[in-house]
Amino acid sequence: MKNKLIVILFICVAMIMAACSEGENKSGAEGSVKQELVLNAGSEPASLDPALNTSVTSGWILDHMYEGLYTRDQDGNITLGVAEDVEVSEDGTVYTFKIKEDAKWSDGSDLTAEDFKYSWERVLNPNTGARFAYYLFVIKNAEAYNKGEVSVDDVGIKVINDKTLEVTLESPTAFLDSLMTIWTFYPVKKDIVEGNENWTLDAKNFVTNGAFYMTEWEHDNKIILSKNDDYYSQDDITLKQITFEMVDDATTAYQLYQTGDLDFISSIPTDQLSAVKDSDEYIEFPYYSTAMFIFNVNKEPFTNRKVRQAFAMAVDRKSLVENVGQTGETPAFAMVPPGADTPDGDFRELGGDYFKKDYDQAKRLIEEAMEEEGWSEFPEVTLMFSTSDNNKRYAEAVQEMLKQNLNIDLKLANQEWNTYLDTLGRGDYQMGRMSWTGLYIDPAVNLEYYLGTSTNNRTGWVNDQYDQLLKDAQVEQDIMKRFELLHEAEETLMTDLPFMPLYFLTKNYLTSTGVKNVAYYENRSPVFKWAKKTE
After folding, report:
1. Which residue would you say has higher pLDDT here, 519 or 20?
2. Which of 6, 15, 171, 181 has a CA positioned 20 to 30 A from the CA of residue 187?
3. How far apart are CA 214 and CA 212, in angstroms?
4. 341 — phi, psi (to 5°)?
5. Does position 10 have pLDDT exceeding 50, yes or no?
6. Where does the secretion signal sit in this chain (predicted)?
7. Angstrom distances, CA of residue 4 to CA of 1, 9, 11, 17
8. Mind listing the pLDDT tens digit for each residue in 340-379?
């Protein structure tokens, strides 16, 4: 009897232990998913200095590391970021920002109004050479300081106290909140920047104020970001780590995604599109961006406007997007993409197309240009593009179209992204591929790309009438009149054609089904700030 009781007791204890073990295992399984994501950035960032960066890809990484006075929520709506409150004067020209008391840098020190003042004045300092400095020209005397006409003390940025910043504008700016979400307005830490001129090249130098901070940078291979526990909203951040891999080949990236080594890719090989389009992992999202070929108007044959017009007319864009892209792009016959609302409707729909496919007219224009320039043979032309499978396919298709439609032999050359930007910046090219994304949704941000003073305008084209129209639009308070000025500016641009638009972009992503709460925006790369991994 005693032995039986011992056996029964042993069985009961074993059952209890098994049940506890099973409960522990279940709990462990649910909590064992590592909150780490691996994304593909595609290439080495051009710059991770918010003042100097002009690349959307680099901006994608910066968006996870820094935060401005305004930001976007998970649905893409503009909201206050590190500012907890803002007061606007009756005339709309003075903004007083109150910075959150618990807004800090990743080293635990306080984020202050002085940090923003220093950072913005650094962007505007002509010695910095910031290509996006013009975004800050809405601030009083910002442009004048950038041009060396006034001192920095005249710029409308004033520190009231540690947590209060006063910003005076040149004129009321209705889109200021949207404008200030871009990385050019992000703060940087003065002692870090001035302590090492090469501070952006080493992970240990980064002190950031956003949801993540950099812990590792293996150049040309990967960047690792870790959760910033000093971020004011760190309780809303589930991820512990984000790794940005730098795989520039779309096929290789796709294979890594298929094996689970990547959780997200933004470039899908064309030959795989049909296989993934019906997948729950596939996301197609409209993107406020224009793909184009820019012309160096200071190099033959693009010194002649008729050549530029002929090239634009000789390309079958419908064929390009249907047979080469196959990702939902739409043919572009203007600069400003769809998506910018006006009181009368979409800006692009109202403006319409500025030219059309016309092979016969294109041939006549080439003949006229050759006669005007005295060319017995058409000059050799090389189309340059940054290294990528997608760029190569488009270049080869356009090469074939120009040969077939104009009997022009187009040579092709490609370079790694940073080298390519340097080549274009030196003007050492004839024709190059670029795309431009409106960092805030307004026609002006697209059209300002070709301002004569814009350092992004690498075409050599300068048109005083165009520049004046955009300047007038910036200060015009009558919204209808403002859009009229912008339409007039686009018409001027599309008459001279220092570029040829190809298509308006649509973004196509593959995101692992185990990744939730990703924020997809129509003018920025997806933000994984609120994401979590469930499997």
Report:
1. 519
2. 171
3. 7
4. -80, 145
5. no
6. 1-19
7. 5, 9, 11, 20
8. 999 999 999 999 999 999 999 999 999 999 999 999 999 9
